[in-house]
Specification:
The protein is α+β, with helices and mostly antiparallel strands. It is about 30% helix and about 20% strand. It folds into 4 domains: about 40 residues, no CATH class; about 230 residues, Zn peptidases (Aminopeptidase); about 90 residues, no CATH class; about 80 residues, no CATH class. It binds zinc ion. Zinc ion (ZN) binds next to loops.
Length: about 450
């Protein structure tokens, strides 16, 4: 029985009613629920997802527990677009105070700035002078026009070599790449053109997302950024992985335009289940590849780096594994929101490569690095391949020096063993990964003879 009904049940007792009404008033004043079930707990959590070039933390606020990971990224363009940082911070404050505004199916993340160095240094670029919205690997979508390149159109139609030395070269780009691996939708806040546009290549979910956001915010929807073609853009990169992605451009370069954008975000949240489809399993060479393994494979070099999938994925102990020719990819759900959600199995650790260590001079030049963790060095073509391919997160530490040893194909080649890969130098000077995925699959199948000869 509620307090008010309890009071009403004593109509003849005026004093009791007054006392009870006063109590009920106090009760109501504390805004405690009278009979409803307690509201479900919604996770509100601040995460550090990494550090910028100059070591500033890149933060994210998470609100919610649903499967639909929606990420709002502010301030890619640093100081000139600081109002998007203010906006993202205000959105974070709003949803921190009102976590029930995030539907149960959604997990909302707000990154107030992916470019804290640019914000602090007063520039559009990151601390290395790279435009982070021109640095992503957009070369595997179906539109050649927006492929990554070093010479780019920047703000105000200025052409400059600010695309970076190569695609995904910047630590901020790699942070984003890792953090969006399991995203179901992405919103990249910019200013100040006053429109909302989706990915350049036709991607129906991105178009619907842009239209919905524009409608909720009262901004203009446009199919393209009209001034020039954006190369290496985050929205194009995301959509090429199947992640619906849009760019809302605030109208002004000074105001956060909070109410409008809260309207846009709410419109997206209200329709999230219809707008943001489940990440899709893909077929490569006739073999199904689970969505997140496929995204990792694709964004880290695909067929050229890892080769084709050799067999369908298996699940054991919560870890989904799939053998590709040159790597075993593993999905570790307990590593969500870290760069290790998908990782190369540490197969390098299983391989001794007895061979002749190649003599080198002391590791004193800038081209040579020593890793104190394992005591090994990295230099030359292998260092370049390690850096470009994702470095420590992807390949792990070196476990050997450069050796001349026999490779799986029988040839004697220069090699180096890492925790998660073995690098091989080919005759033409190019580097490739040893076929460790193949070897692991053969070993596993030979230990389980009932499976028979299904290795393909
Ligand atoms: Zn911008």
């Amino acid at each position: 029985m509620s307090l008010r009904r309890f009071v009403a049940s004593f109509p003849s007792c005026l004093i009791a009613r007054l006392v009870c009404c006063a109590l009920a008033g106090i009760y109501a004043g504390f805004a405690l629920p009278t009979s409803a079930a307690p509201a479900p707990q919604v996770t509100v959590e601040e995460l550090t997802i990494g550090a910028s070039t100059q070591g500033r933390p890149v933060m994210a606020l998470r609100i919610g527990d649903g499967p639909i990971k929606l990420v709002i990224v502010g301030n890619t363009h640093g100081a000139p677009e600081a109002n998007t940082y203010v906006l993202a911070t205000m959105l974070a404050d709003h949803f921190r105070a009102n976590p029930q505004d995030v539907p149960p199916a959604v997990r909302l993340y707000i990154v107030p700035t992916i470019n804290p160095d640019g914000l602090a240094l007063g520039t559009r670029f990151n601390a290395r002078g790279v435009d982070l919205n021109r640095n992503m690997n957009t070369s595997f979508d179906t539109c050649p026009e927006n492929d990554w390149r070093v010479t780019v159109f920047g703000a105000y139609g200025i052409v400059s070599d600010t695309g970076g030395p190569y695609a995904d070269s910047e630590v901020e780009s790699r942070l984003l790449r890792a953090f969006l691996l399991d995203a179901w939708g992405a919103i990249f806040l910019h200013s100040a053109a006053g429109n909302v546009f989706p990915a350049f290549c036709d991607h129906a979910p991105s178009i619907a997302l842009a239209q919905t956001y524009a409608g909720g915010a009262g901004y203009r929807y446009t199919r393209f950024w009209e001034q020039y073609v954006i190369t290496g853009g985050m929205h194009d990169w995301a959509s090429s992985l199947g992640i619906p992605a849009i760019v809302p451009e605030l109208v002004t370069g000074t105001e956060p335009e909070f109410e409008q954008n809260l309207g846009g975000v709410r419109a997206v949240l209200d329709a999230a289940e219809a707008l943001l489809p489940v990440p899709e399993t893909r077929i490569e060479g006739g073999v199904p590849v689970p969505a997140l393994l496929w995204r990792y494979w694709q964004m880290h070099g695909g067929m050229e780096r890892f080769g084709a999938p050799l067999a369908p994925a298996t699940v054991e102990g919560g870890v989904t594994r799939q053998a590709f020719e040159r790597a075993m990819l593993e999905l570790h759900p307990d590593q969500a929101d870290t760069p290790y959600l998908v990782q190369l199995a540490p197969l390098g650790r299983l391989h001794d490569r007895p061979g002749v260590t190649v003599p080198h001079g002391d590791c004193t030049s800038p081209e040579c690095r020593t890793f104190a963790e394992t005591g090994h060095t990295l230099r030359g073509a292998f260092a370049a391949y390690w850096d470009r391919g994702g470095g420590l997160n992807v390949f792990g530490f070196p476990l050997s020096e450069e050796v001349m040893a026999r490779a799986a194909d029988g040839s004697i080649r220069l090699q180096q063993v890492f925790e998660r890969a073995i690098f091989i130098l080919d005759d033409d000077g190019s580097v490739r990964l040893e076929s460790l995925g193949w070897a692991a699959l053969v070993r596993e199948r030979s230990l389980a003879p009932s499976v028979g000869y299904q290795v393909r």
